[in-house]
Design goal:
Largest sheet: 11 strands, mixed
Strand order of the largest sheet: 8-9-5-4-1-2-3-13-12-11-10
Oligomer: single chain
CATH topology: Rossmann fold
Structural class: alpha/beta
CATH architecture: 3-Layer(aba) Sandwich
Number of strands: 13
Number of helices: 9
CATH class: Alpha Beta
Distance between the termini: 13 Å
Helix content: 25-40%
Shape: globular
Length: 307
């Protein structure tokens, strides 16, 4: 009965963009002409990411594309809704105490309050209907003074502005409300995103404009590395007017303090129960929900039936 209640709680209130079984790595990245995007996103992340810490959480980590950038952290939690992506990450990075693979819903993070020094989301927020819910959850798992490095799809990019002014598109890039250009794919206005971050308790202290040369024409004229080198020069100054299709920001939670080291996981169903290992499961002391650990992946998507 408790397991059924936990499942109902987890399934309330939001729609999930699920990449389960799609091989995001092969379908979107490998051999798909996105070497330039990969390079410039790595440049931006290196610039904004605090270089070291006890624990980093990447939400929407997929196959672990960016995991090599987290070398300064003692422990890295790679979280994604798609277990198939986490299995690919595990194949790339191996099993160890340093990398933890967690299948979970961003709106119900299974981590204890203050468990992380740093949280990263790249190519994630544009799939969310309720961004504020996600931001508040991320703020909760950060320690006081912890850093959040995020990327979002920019509604007010130069291409959209030119298309709107020339009458080639009906929606205005100057209106601050999010625009859903495809199902569960949203562009966000810079002012709107900054406001949402402030509402969630973050102070934004840095930003970069990224991926200025994403258009196929530029990719035909120059190599990915040449384009990335120019993009690197433009990222900081471009952040002033934010006309690029992608924007990176870094925010901090208020105060200062160390990460919580006692309990890493927290029950995502009740939000407060500590978890105890029982065979290949974790059981919540509060609501009784039982969570599976299968093939090295902590599965917090749906509780399993008690044995």
């Amino acid at each position: 009965m408790k397991d059924q209640l936990a499942e109902r709680i987890l399934n309330q209130g939001h729609v999930i963009c699920d990449y389960e079984g799609t091989s995001y790595r092969a379908r979107f990245w490998e051999g798909r002409g996105r070497e330039y995007e990969d390079l410039v996103e790595r440049i931006a992340l290196r610039r904004l990411l605090p270089p070291r810490g006890r624990r980093l959480l990447e939400v929407g980590a997929g196959f672990g594309r960016l995991a090599e950038l987290y070398a300064g952290y003692d422990q890295v939690v790679l979280l994604d809704y798609a277990k198939s992506g986490l299995l690919e990450a595990q194949e790339r990075l191996g099993r160890s105490d340093r990398f933890l693979y967690v299948a979970a819903d961003l709106h119900h993070l299974p981590l204890a309050p203050g468990a992380c020094d740093t949280v990263v989301t790249v190519r994630v927020l544009h799939h969310l209907v309720n961004v504020q819910s996600a931001l508040r959850g991320i703020a909760a798992v950060l320690r006081p003074g912890g850093a959040y490095v995020l990327e979002y799809a920019n509604k007010r990019n130069l291409k959209a502005i030119l298309r709107y002014l020339s009458g080639r598109q009906s929606w205005s890039p100057f209106v601050t409300t999010p625009y859903e250009f495809a199902e569960l794919n949203f562009d966000f206005h810079p002012s709107w995103m900054t406001h949402e971050l402030h509402q969630a308790g973050f102070t934004v202290d840095a930003g970069l404009a990224v991926s200025h040369f994403r258009h196929p024409l530029f990719k035909r004229l120059a190599s990915p590395r040449a384009l990335a080198a120019v993009d690197r020069l433009m990222q900081r100054v471009g952040a002033v007017w934010k006309l690029s299709p992608s924007v990176f920001l870094r925010g901090h939670t208020p105060g200062s303090g160390a990460v919580v080291t006692e309990d890493l996981f927290c029950c995502p169903a009740c939000g407060k129960g500590s978890l105890t290992a029982r065979g290949d499961t974790l059981v919540c002391a509060g609501c009784g929900a039982l969570w599976a650990v299968t093939d090295g992946i902590y599965d917090f998507k749906t509780p399993v039936a008690a044995q």
